[in-house]
Input
Amino acid sequence: MKHTLTVMRYNLSDSLRPTAIFFSIYTAFVLLNALLSYLIPGGNTVGSDLAILIFLFVCGVVGFRYNFFFAMANNISRRDFFLGTALSGLLPSIGSAAVMIVINRLISLFYPMPTLYTLCFERERLVFGPDGIAIVAQSAGKEALTLLMSFLFLAVLGFSIYLVGFFISALFYRMNKLLRMTLWIIPWLLVVLLSLLWPTLPQSFTGSVIRFFAAILGITSHSAWPAMGTAMVLALLLTFCGWLLTRRAVLKK
Amino acid sequence: MATIAIHGLCKSYGKTEVLRDIDLTFEEGRIYGLLGRNGVGKSTLLNLITRRIFPDRGEIAVDGVPVGGPGDPLRKIYCMSEAALYPENMRVAELYRWTADFYPHFDRARADRLTAAFGLDPKKRIKSLSTGYASIVKLIVTLSSGAEVLIFDEPVLGLDAGHRSLFYKEVLSLYGEKGCTVVLSTHIIEEISDLLESVIILEDCRVLASESVDGLLERYHCVSGAEGEVMGYLSGREVVHTERMGPYLSATVAGPADRQQADRLNLTLMRPKLQDLFIHLTQGKGGTL
Output
């Protein structure tokens, strides 16, 4: 357990600099955008907090290879390495979500900046301009709850996406070149095949599939909880697969 | 101090067999030389001991505790690898700090002293170090780790003669101070032969020899002199190697020397050098002219 915490601490300290760079760029971007839209009315940054999800995904993706080498150099067990690296996504996810909400609130004082959560689950609160761009999130007297849900939604989604990135990284580390190529091609093949086959499938089947996904993503219920639950279940499943990959991972140099 | 016991260890890469039924014991408080030709499986054996790779079969235990099981016996070992395993962007001083977190007995004072002695800048990033200094960082970390078993895989790669000498002195000093077990895997046998107490020679997927250096050298002797006399001496003996120099012949022979016969034939008897004996014992693997 001690080494799990040390691996966590190492990963966190390793990600401090990239996180600081990310938030500097992000803050500069939203400030510039706010300034530009003040000069040229009509712009906004709806759902710009999606950027943190991409950042956390990248953190997950780069979290395996070099940290694994360092763990091996220090004779750290695969279990400690895995737990330490997987859990080290937790704090950045929570911290980043909190910082994003703070930035969002500060910018919102001067400029409309609805969160990703508002965009996905509280669209009824958004007022859209004539060009279809959301210009402001209407206050419906539940601002605190929206903020809390925005924070939870970002944190849970962020951690899940970090774990997905970590799993992909572990998968690519274990694969040889041929398998990696195949893994790149399969998603595109699936998209092409599905788009070709979708119209030919029975409507009862496609309707059920759509209803299923709408339910687990919280679209039907207009609630973030099913979406957060789905993200966590998916992430936990992939984390388990990540452990299966890590426990037999060998040094490749 | 820790003992490493290896039983029935086998390892193949695809269809290529590297190690076959290896039985070995690294006893505590000794300096071992792990010798073998290129590609014979020295690094593979060290990586198996530290569980950086997995064996096909066999067991490795440190002080009776199986490696990979509960109890974390690998905490007693620090293995300096030939491969670059440290984060490239990390500074040398940071590396010391993190190693101290993983190895609680890490001797920071020793690390700082060695850093100064080797002329290494602790503020430099790992990626900016030359091949020699990259090796030096690994050496310093291993020597300062406080582990009971120190394993060095190609420790003097890229080091100049002065730095190599400093490294050997430090190994001896640490050994005298703490009595730790040291395993040196290197091709520069001549330089380390005076350091070694025991030697393990790998050849053709198996252990060719595993014994004390003195014990190994006593099992062979060199004889030289006029060709005819030497040939007479060699008759009925197991000859490991012969070398002709004009009218003279020099031979490495297995078994005890017959001093009386050598004197009678006016031959010179010598104890073989470890490096020469190693070359003669393993030259069937290619590399001879």
Summary: Residues 220-285 of chain B form a domain with the Alpha-Beta Plaits fold (CATH 3.30.70). Residues 161-178 of chain B form the longest helix (18 residues). Chain B has ten helices and 14 strands.
